[in-house]
């Protein structure tokens, strides 16, 4: 609502300025219909908005002005000086009221006088004189009366602005904003160049100091400018309640909408791009998900359905969850539907995991409702949503609970203008491709890859799955780079937003970096092969490949046929009994080992200078975050360390490796090892015995120390004001472990646990006494040695449990 | 009062051309380009101008229909055409000259190969210059037809 109001104020203020000019021109040239039309349109718009926003005074004024102008439009009255003055007086009052909306200052209410003056010009108005002289008399008189109060109120307004500063906004054109951003980018580049030059020459400490100051402010400016393109996602969410109201009325359902995280900020363009997919999902949830009130009551649910939309930012991604408490997806119904529409065979269905089965709702031409309603169910639903999201570089996930609802999670980048990209060598130049569309990287020499000749074309067979295949040089018509032909080439499995998977054979994947996407010229985009251009740090422009365009050239045209790859992958997995994919690598001690592929997020090269030993652990500093490093015991002196980024879904850790060898399926049994917490077991890889690393060990260490979830329990510490140990040692330990700490005796009664070193007389079940010696002294049994961290935390937990 | 406008006088394929200064942002020497495979032959490649990435157009290709290999240090006019920025290769740049718009000959047809981009002829310091509008050079359909 606030947003709408701000918008209204900004818009009205802008048009008001134009309007006075139009009115005055109309006065000079009363025959020009277009002028009076445009004035009428403005007043009409204001009137509409005022009614909508519930602004009665503005509504009354604009309504009167509209009446008058409508009469002028019909040619019943011609503008004269007096008439225009009267209209202007009303418009000024509208302006004053609009400003007042923002400053919250009262405006003198003489609206009725103004309106009456103005309407006296309308011929049909009864009770006013018919001769022109008489009318102008009244007008002059009234205008004189009015002038005073208006001036007065304007004066007040200025006072109000000084005394009550409200956040004001300026509307800036996107062109200007882009210019500003370009300017700042230029500045950053220039700074880098200056820094290079300075390093060459001997630099005085003063100059160094000045330059680092400049450098700092340039960096800050770049960040600020970046924020200018962001806006709260509320702009998108604010229209949803109204939409849902309309839908639920049409469906005769009662649905509540809960929205959280409206303040999350995303790129302006992203807000627009998300609108359609989000509306679609919401419609689906209301139509397919939520049951009719009668059905809900029979099921013991409340008659009112609930749809919850939550947005949150995590890193450089935004997550939007849309959860309903409806019936969820009925897998049996899904199966019948999928098979009856011949999208899948019964045999395929049998082999699919639940997740893949759910994902069939994203197949084109799929719809589960038997009847097509006006709202959803025309079979052009979720596949379009998925395609749109993928084009934005996002992904969609389903969490189904039959009978209890469906949760759809969208993951999107915060901005459209920066993508995570891979740079690919082709001939003697580099091309970028969005990492989002890349599923897998394989060495062509990998035993799982077979390239087969089919007539003139070639097909890649990856772990038994056939897919279109081409060399990037052939697609682009570029000469092969001689230097690299000796090495083994890389196969990129690409999932385009439009089209089926295909395998792209490239000379090498060179780098993994964040790329700022700049739009390409139409002539360049007309090739259909490029999505845009970018300027990496080396200052050499780079073309970004369009995965959908490549798919079209390569002949991977079946649109949206994603499941075939997933289904086939699973089929292959099932055929090979265990069939879990694992990554084979050489660890830092030059020993081969394997780890389940599913826990690996990606591979990264981390500069040794970013790794440090602190707080008893090795950490890598990446984008202001600390990520724990395993696999090495000390900080490496220099160079890049190859890391596997492994994740348990919440936290990420690095595992340092010397070399990555292969991705393979685990065939046969996993034989148990002696240390199950370190190794899941022993497996066979091409006749060799390797240990399968247990990722558990990387995550177990930290999570156990910190309380998670729920309210932070309050610990009241009983001590004197100058007791340093409690304040410097105990408090940080408790806070770091997830507790709140208070020394205020008023909090004592509300505290969950009481801690103290002094022996107090009163017996309280919540009391936990700490002692100075590691050995209990007589009379101090039941106390905890104050440096026994594990014992202390477990004793607190014991107290919390009511022990 | 006569209407006057500033024009940049340059040479493309040996011919003198005049480009309205409204189009022209700057004149630069280009040392390095990145070719764009499978693109229209009139496109030479991409080049970086500070933090911007611009598309370089082989202006003489429009007239001759023959592509010329890129020479480092080539001269280009940086211009914004329909919201996008381009570099237009030229052989040389002579001067920026104010031309009286009334003196532009609209009745004489420019040489045939220039039709499409020429909007008239004008005599500048004793020699004829073709007034050109660079927009058709970057027009997707026309360029492909050419």
Number of extended strands of chain A? 34
Structural class of chain B: mainly beta
Quantity of strands of chain B, as a count: 10
Number of domains of chain B: 1
> In oligomeric terms, what are we looking at?
heterodimer
Our measurement of the CA-to-CA distance between the termini of chain A, rounded to an integer number of angstroms, reads 51 Å
Shape descriptor of chain B reads globular
Shape of chain A: globular
Describe the fold and architecture.
- The complex is a heterodimer of chains A (about 800) and B (about 150).
- Chain A contains 23 helices and 34 strands.
- Chain A is an alpha+beta fold.
- Chain A has six domains: about 1-165, Four Helix Bundle (Hemerythrin (Met), subunit A); about 175-230; about 235-415, Histidine kinase-like ATPase, C-terminal domain (Heat Shock Protein 90); about 420-570, Beta Barrel (OB fold (Dihydrolipoamide Acetyltransferase, E2P)); about 575-705, Beta Barrel (OB fold (Dihydrolipoamide Acetyltransferase, E2P)), CATH 2.40.50.180; about 715-800.
- In chain A, strands 19, 20, 21, 22, 23, 24, 25, 26, 27, 28 and 29 form an eleven-stranded mixed β-sheet that branches. A six-stranded mixed β-sheet of chain A has the order 10-14-15-13-12-11.
- In chain A, helix 1 packs antiparallel against helix 4, helix 3 (about 55-75) packs parallel to helix 5 and helix 5 packs antiparallel against helix 6 (about 130-165).
- Chain B is mainly beta.
- Chain B has one domain (about 5-145): Beta Barrel (OB fold (Dihydrolipoamide Acetyltransferase, E2P)), CATH 2.40.50.180.
- In chain B, about 10% of the residues lie in helices and about 50% in strands.
- In chain B, the strands form two sheets. Chain B has a five-stranded mixed β-sheet with strand order 8-1-2-10-9, with no helix packed on it. Chain B has a five-stranded mixed β-sheet with strand order 3-6-7-5-4, with no helix packed on it.
- In chain B, strand 9 and strand 10 (about 125-130) form a beta hairpin.
- Chain B is globular and about 45 Å long.
- Residues about 140-145 of chain B have low confidence and may be disordered.
């Amino acid at each position: 609502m606030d947003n709408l109001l701000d918008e209204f104020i900004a818009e009205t203020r802008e048009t008001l300025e134009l309007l006075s000019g139009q009115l005055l021109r109309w006065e000079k040239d009363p025959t020009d219909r277009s002028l009076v039309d445009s004035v009428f349109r403005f007043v009409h718009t204001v009137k509409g908005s005022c009614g909508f926003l519930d602004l009665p005074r503005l509504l009354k004024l604009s309504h009167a002005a509209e009446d008058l102008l409508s009469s002028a439009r019909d040619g019943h009255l011609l503008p004269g000086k007096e008439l225009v003055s009267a209209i202007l007086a009303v418009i000024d009052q509208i302006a004053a009221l609009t400003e007042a909306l923002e400053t919250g200052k009262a405006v003198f209410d003489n609206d009725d006088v103004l309106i009456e003056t103005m309407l006296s010009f309308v011929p049909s108005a009864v009770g006013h004189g018919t001769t022109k002289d008489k009318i102008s008399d009244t007008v002059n008189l009234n205008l004189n009366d009015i002038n005073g109060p208006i001036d007065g109120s304007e004066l007040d307004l200025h006072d109000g602005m000084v005394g009550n500063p409200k956040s004001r906004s300026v509307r800036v054109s996107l062109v200007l904003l882009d210019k500003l951003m370009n300017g700042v980018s230029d500045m950053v580049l220039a700074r880098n160049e200056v820094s290079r030059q300075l390093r060459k020459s001997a630099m005085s400490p003063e100059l160094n100091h000045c330059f680092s100051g400049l450098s700092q402010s340039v960096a800050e400016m770049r960040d600020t400018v970046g924020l200018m393109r962001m806006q709260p996602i509320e702009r998108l969410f604010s229209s949803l309640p109204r939409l849902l109201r309309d839908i639920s009325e049409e469906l005769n359902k009662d649905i509540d909408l809960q929205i959280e995280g409206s303040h999350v900020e995303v790129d302006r363009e992203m807000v627009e791009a998300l609108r359609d997919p989000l509306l679609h999902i919401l419609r689906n949830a209301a139509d397919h998900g939520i049951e009719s009130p009668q059905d809900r009551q029979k099921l013991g649910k409340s008659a009112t359905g609930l749809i919850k939309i939550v947005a949150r930012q995590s890193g450089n991604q935004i997550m939007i969850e849309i959860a309903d408490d409806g019936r969820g997806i009925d897998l049996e119904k899904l199966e019948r539907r999928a098979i009856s529409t011949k999208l899948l065979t019964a045999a395929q269905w049998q082999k699919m995991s639940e997740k893949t089965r759910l994902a069939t709702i994203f197949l084109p031409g799929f719809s589960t409702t038997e009847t097509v309603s006006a709202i959803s169910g025309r079979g052009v639903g979720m596949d379009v949503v998925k395609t749109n999201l993928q084009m934005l570089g996002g992904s969609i996930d389903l969490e189904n609970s039959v009978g209890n609802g469906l949760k759809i999670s969208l993951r999107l980048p915060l901005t459209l203008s920066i993508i995570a990209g891979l740079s690919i060598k082709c001939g003697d130049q580099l091309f970028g491709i969005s990492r989002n569309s890349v599923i897998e990287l394989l060495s062509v020499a990998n035993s799982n890859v077979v390239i087969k000749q089919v007539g003139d074309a070639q097909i890649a067979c990856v772990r038994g799955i056939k897919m279109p295949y081409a060399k990037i040089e052939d697609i682009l018509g570029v000469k092969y780079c001689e230097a690299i032909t000796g090495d083994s080439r890389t196969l990129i499995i690409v999932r385009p937003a439009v089209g089926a998977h295909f395998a792209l054979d490239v000379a090498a994947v060179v780098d993994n970096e964040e790329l700022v996407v700049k739009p390409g010229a139409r002539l360049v985009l007309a090739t259909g092969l490029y999505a845009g251009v970018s300027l990496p740090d080396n200052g050499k422009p780079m073309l970004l490949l369009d995965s959908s365009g490549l798919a079209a050239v390569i002949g991977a045209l079946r649109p949206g046929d994603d499941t075939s790859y997933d289904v086939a992958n699973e089929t292959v997995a099932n055929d090979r009994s265990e069939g879990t994919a694992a990554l084979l690598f050489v660890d830092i001690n030059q020993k081969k080992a394997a780890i389940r592929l599913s826990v690996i997020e990606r591979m990264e090269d981390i500069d040794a200078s970013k790794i440090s030993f602190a707080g008893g652990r090795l950490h890598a500093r990446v984008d202001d975050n600390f990520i724990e490093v395993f696999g090495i015991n000390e900080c490496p002196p220099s160079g890049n360390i190859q890391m596997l980024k492994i994740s348990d879904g919440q936290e990420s850790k690095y595992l340092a490796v010397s070399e990555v060898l292969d991705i393979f399926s685990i065939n046969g049994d996993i034989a148990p090892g002696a240390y199950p917490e370190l190794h899941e077991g022993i497996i066979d890889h091409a006749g060799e015995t390797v240990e399968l690393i247990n990722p558990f060990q990387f995550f177990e260490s930290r999570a156990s120390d910190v309380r998670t979830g729920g309210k932070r329990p309050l610990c009241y510490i009983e001590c004197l004001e100058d007791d340093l140990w409690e304040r410097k040692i105990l408090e940080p330990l408790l806070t770091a472990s997830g507790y709140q700490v208070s020394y205020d005796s008023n909090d004592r009664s509300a505290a969950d646990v009481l801690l103290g070193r002094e022996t107090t007389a009163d017996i309280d079940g919540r009391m936990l006494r700490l002692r100075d010696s590691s050995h209990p002294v007589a009379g101090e049994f039941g106390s905890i040695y104050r440096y026994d961290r594990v014992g202390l935390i477990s004793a607190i937990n014991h107290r919390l449990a009511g022990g | 009062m006569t209407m006057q406008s500033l024009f940049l006088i340059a040479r493309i394929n040996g011919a003198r051309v005049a480009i309205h200064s409204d189009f022209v942002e700057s004149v630069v020497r280009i040392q390095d380009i990145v070719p764009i495979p499978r693109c229209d032959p009139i496109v030479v490649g991409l080049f970086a101008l500070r933090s911007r990435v611009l598309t370089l157009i082989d202006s003489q290709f429009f007239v001759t229909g023959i592509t010329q290999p890129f020479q480092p240090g080539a001269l280009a006019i940086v211009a914004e055409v329909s919201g996008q920025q381009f570099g237009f290769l030229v052989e040389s740049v002579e001067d920026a000259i104010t031309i009286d718009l009334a003196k532009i000959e609209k009745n004489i047809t420019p040489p045939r190969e220039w039709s499409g981009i020429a909007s008239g002829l004008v005599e500048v310091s004793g020699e004829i210059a073709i007034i050109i509008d660079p927009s058709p050079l970057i027009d997707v359909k026309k360029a492909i037809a050419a």
